[in-house]
Structure formats: structure tokens, C-alpha cells
Fold:
Amino acid sequence: MTTLRDMRLECATATRVLAVAGLFDMHGHISIRQGDMMFICDRGASRLTVRPDLISSVRISDGKQLSEALPPSETALHLAAYRAKPEVGSVAHFHPMYATAFAVAGKPLEVASNAGAFFGGTIPVHDNPELIRTDELGAPVTRDMGAASAVLLRGHGALVVGGDVHECVTAALYLEESAQRNYLAANLGKVKAYNADEIRRVREMLASRFVIEKTWLYALEKARVAGALADLD
Ligand SMILES: [Zn+2]
Structure:
């Protein structure tokens, strides 16, 4: 049985993994759902060294804080995604350099690489640049995300979702890889977007459990080798 301590450890680990990957800095948070609860790092905690006791818990149905640790100011982004998408088990919000460049330009991220095909289609832009701190601001973000598993927040950052925490971390990594590749390719000329059939065929191979676990393992071991998980073992 998964205990609350297990959930906090898993969330602290995933937070550090995304910090070592360069996707989180002083900002950025990943949450994990268990029933009507979500776990997420404390608002002020270092994403590089956050410990399980600094993982806060929040009730999803009414947003009530259940722990002493304070949830981040943009927890509404996570709550909105969980409420609208029952299949989602993990959500990450962050401000990655290349994906946010597309958000700053207000340009949806087209599928023009295999990393982009992971998402099954173009990643839309939510047009409101405000910090998402209320349910009223959170619900439209999820609406704009639609059936996609990611959305860009104009001038601000990105939100990705996954069925579980490994899939969510994988989506976070692929989002930034896709944006970086499109950005670089755009310097060579117009990117050659995949058509629907190409997206479907590549996605079939790439969005498999095997690839998700391999991607998670790479990111996890990168953090371990860097010494960033030593005190969690
Ligand atoms: Zn933000």
C-alpha cells in the first residue's frame, strides 16, 4: 500500500529530478494525485533539495490545505487539471527556456520532431499571462489545453500532465526538447511540420510505457549521479 510518506518521497524525488534536468529553477512544481489529495512541494522550498516533510498536501475537491507545508501560489493550475481530467495522475508547471520562448511569442508549438509527436498534436497557448492563483483563472487553462497533454501560458511558462508521475516527467522533458528543436530548426528555415498520419505513427512508438520508463530512469539517474538524491536514499 502506498503511504503518505511514500507519496511525499516520490514528489520530492520528482521535484529534484526536474530541477537537475534544468526545467525547474527557484520556480516550478510537480504534483501527484492520490484519491482526492494532491502532493506538491512547499512554496518556498528549494527545488534541488526539497525533503518529504516539505511536501504539502491539498484536497482536490475544495482546494483545502491539509499540511503545514504551504502549497505554491499557482496550485490552482494543478487543481483545475485534476478536476477536469480524471485520467491525470500527475501535473507539472514550470517556466522552461525554449517552451516559454514560444509562449512569449504567443506561438503554438507545432509537431516537427519526434519529441513533439509525443503530444499527439500542436500544443496550444493560453492567452492570459497572469499568474494562475484562483479556480476562476485555472479552469480556462485546462479548457484551452483540451485533449492535449500540455499547454503554453503566454509570456509565462507551461503546464504538462501525465497518467502518472513518470509520464508527467517524460512529458516535461519532451516539451522542452520539442521547443528547442523547433527553435533551432527555425533558424534554418521554416520547420517542416508532421502531418496527422506521421504524428500518429511516431507517437505509437514513442508514447509507450517502455519509452516513458526509460526516459524517467535516465532523468532519475542523472539526478542520482549528480548527488542530488543522496539524502533521500
Ligand atoms: Zn508560473
